[in-house]
Amino acid sequence: MSTKSVTRGRLAALGVLCGLVALAAPIGGLTSGVSAAQSGGGTVTIAQQPGSVPNYIFPLVNGSDATGSDVMQFQYLMYRPLYWNGDDGKPIPNSKLSLAYPPVYSNDGKTLTIKLRHYNWSDGTAVTSRDIEFWMNLLKAEKANWWQYVAGEFPDNVASMTFPTARTFTITFNRVYSHQFLLGNQLAQIIPIPQEAWDRTSTGGAIGNYDMTPSGAASVFDFLNAQSSNLATYSTNPLWRTVDGPWRMSAYSATTSYVAFSPNTAYSGSPRPKLAKLEEIPFASDSAEYDALRAGDIDYGYVPYQDVSQDSYLKSHGYKIASWATWGFNYLSVNFANPKLGKVFSQLYVRQAMQHLIDQPAFIKSIFHGLAYATDGVIPALPPTPLLTSSVAKSTYSYSPATAKALLTSHGWHRSAAGVDTCARPGVSSSECGKGIAKGTRLVMPLQYASGTATITAEVSVLQSSFAAAGIDLELDQAPFGTVVGNVSVACDRSKPSTCSWALGYWGSGWTYFPASYPNVSVPFGSGSFLNAGYYSSSEANSLMQATLTKSGLAPMHELEVYMAKNLPVLWMPEPYYQISAISTKLKGVLPQDPLLNLTAEGWSD
Q1: Residue 162 belongs to a domain with what CATH number?
Q2: Are 264 and 246 in contact (CB under 8 A)?
Q3: DSSP single-letter state for residue 31
Q4: CA pair distance 213, 606, nearest whole angstrom
Q5: Cβ-contact 575, 381 below 8 angstroms
Q6: What is the CATH number of the domain that holds 541?
Q7: Beta-carbon count within 10 A of 85 CB
Q8: Which terminus of the chain faces fewer neighbouring Cβ atoms within 10 Å, N or C?
Q9: Is the CB of residue 481 less than 8 Å from the CB of residue 450?
Q10: CB contact set of 255 (below 8 Å; sequence gap of 6+)
């Protein structure tokens, strides 16, 4: 989920730019660059990060396409959520960019009455409560495929909805939830979509009210999902021309994922776009993007970590440099459902030993040149908010190979002649390997990681050496970014063990809480969550997660943070900045950058 390449949370089987890594130029072609941004209403070019490309347009997203590049930097330019999060560089609700007024609570807080602001679709029809109903009907029919779905939570927790007028609807939940959670999380998931243009089951088919039955809603979803999967028709399909956001897609390359936007002249919100055109330019590699940046062909790009020492060149050639922190955390995924190693990973002492072998301060200094920060738990360290408690720092596991070795030895692991720890004392006592671990089990752990990024390659290389010193053999397996994320970001089918064969996975970007300003930790780590890829499960964690959704104040979140920091649902890794942005000094309104990864380009000017 974000995802941190433009992918945080990042979660997706992204389109991979195969066979192009050697190119030293962007894919798709530049049309202007900085020079075009010198006059009012010019074209602004934005660099896509390698592998992080927009390739899913229908704004009811599955787990394989829930990335910043698909949602925040593609869909949200055209289709706006009911409530917007992100304001002045802070992860907070933003009323002025929301499609609705703040909710009015009744029924002891369980019922919300919501009034829509005056917005129109680009074809001139009004955005109405029927468009909300349309999206909700499709969601309920296909909730199991929705990236935010956790059994028992939204939309399962919606007891009823009514739509009394075109601009008003009510939503009644099955219990009282924290207002902070509802406004900063649940309601931000709702995205009006144009019922009058999309409620159909085939190309050229009549518009109807098919969504009003579960089977009809499923048919409409199948049609729209199929259309969204047909990248070759993105720029010509009339479906995608009906938008309510400030931008319309004017060009798209199915081959490279180059995308261009022009202003939606019928946009009802404020501000309206000042620029004539936005281009999101794909690159095959960091070096190709940096070459284009140095040539002045990119207005809004990034400096690869390996090149940050040269940022003085960019500053002297018309760029300002700004670090972009995300509302997320980084981790190495652990698969508790792995047929061979799941029982091993289920032992907390094993995870503790592994965490003690990760030297976050050294990674930050030597690999990220100080442009990263430690991850200690499920609440982002940056931007700082009251949700983060200082108690978490006391609960984390500092780098200590000696402690790691002692943990394994004391639980019955013996170093073999090959240098790999082997279970010598099976059993469930405190001095034995643990439940389900057979004698002779070896700590050989495959780690699939994303190729093509120097920092990730450096990290896993150091991890391999560090783990080997404690008797853990990391078998490194590099694969394209999209392959890794696709394999380890969505819960596998446990009835088919072959689909759960990955053991450890790392794509370098972990999780971002977009589009929410209030975290719902149940989504990445709740039992039964679609995006709980590693099948982490803790009844105590589930209870603490629920308390953060239903109780007011900071205490529930702080208590959850401390527990998760200690219990290690994943292995915490340093969180790099989303990117070190290089922004043309001629481009105004970009700063501060949004930690939820939104591009509010309607507010930019040149």
Answers
A1: 3.90.76.10
A2: yes
A3: S
A4: 49
A5: yes
A6: 3.10.105.10
A7: 28
A8: C
A9: yes
A10: none
**In whole angstroms, what is the distance from residue 114 CA to residue 136 CA?**
15
Q: Classify residue 219 by its DSSP letter.
A: H
Whether residues 502 and 364 fall in one domain: yes
Residue 225 lies in a domain: no
Same domain, 389 and 491: yes
pLDDT of 23-36, one tens digit each? 233 444 343 333 33
Same domain for 66 and 129, yes or no, is no
> C-alpha angle with apex 588: 43 to 28, nearest 5 degrees?
30
Give the total number of structural domains in the chain. 3
Domain CATH number, residue 50: 3.40.190.10
Measure the CA–CA gap between 519 and 512, rounded to whole angstroms.
Answer: 9
Contact 265, 273 (CB under 8 A): no
Mean pLDDT of the residues in the chain: 91
To which H or E segment does residue 232 belong? none
Most distant CA atoms of the chain, gap in Å: 75
Is pLDDT of 81 > 70?
A: yes
> 6 pLDDT exceeds 60?
no
Three-class SS string for 136-187?
Answer: HHHHHHCHHHCCCCECCCCCCCEEEEEEEECCEEEEEECCCCCHHHHHHHHH
Q: What is the Cα–Cα distance from 460 to 476, expressed in whole angstroms? A: 8
Structure token pair of residue 398: 């500092």
Token couple for 103: 């909710």
- Domain holding 510, by residue range, is 328-398+443-576
Residue 322 contacts residue 591 (beta carbons within 8 Å): yes
Same domain, 367 and 267: no
Residue 72 scores a pLDDT above 70 = yes
Half-sphere exposure of residue 472, counting CA atoms within 13 Å on the CB side?
Answer: 30
